[in-house]
Design goal:
five-stranded mixed β-sheet; 4 helices; alpha+beta
């Protein structure tokens, strides 16, 4: 009787370990951390829940963003996104092309959204736009 009980416990433990392994391997937060360490782009977002903020990583910098729902001519969509870096001191070496890349990737997910950056990225982009306008003149 005890041998049967031990076997059942061992089988249950085996299935629990397999379940835990799969849960760990397919965890989106783990994928975000891995992409952050490897300095790749990764977007962690719950598209079904507009109220929930998203997190993305690019070139080793974590960004957070807020989504706002609004109306388009066809339906209700995310129409506004605000993004800011979680750690501003890691922005060293970023250029306007990097911020444009992030915006382009977000536009693929939210085509109707107007993307706005919060400080200090906002000031950087405005400064670059002013320099480009002066160069064109």
């Amino acid at each position: 009787m005890i041998v049967v009980f031990i076997r059942i416990v061992l089988i249950a433990l085996f299935f629990f370990l397999i379940y835990s392994l799969f849960k760990y391997l397919f965890n989106p937060k783990r994928k975000l951390e891995l992409a952050h360490e490897q300095k790749e782009f990764y977007l962690l977002d719950d598209k079904e829940n507009v109220r929930k903020n998203f997190t993305l990583t690019y070139r080793g910098v974590l960004f957070e963003g807020e989504k706002y729902l609004g109306t388009t001519s066809q339906s209700f969509e995310v129409v506004s996104i605000f993004i800011w870096p979680k750690t501003e001191n890691k922005l060293n070496g970023f250029s306007i092309f990097d911020f444009n890349y992030i915006q382009d990737r977000l536009k693929l997910e939210y085509p109707y959204a107007k993307i706005e950056w919060k400080s200090p990225v906002k000031e950087f982009l405005l400064k670059k736009q002013e320099q480009e306008q002066k160069n064109k003149s």
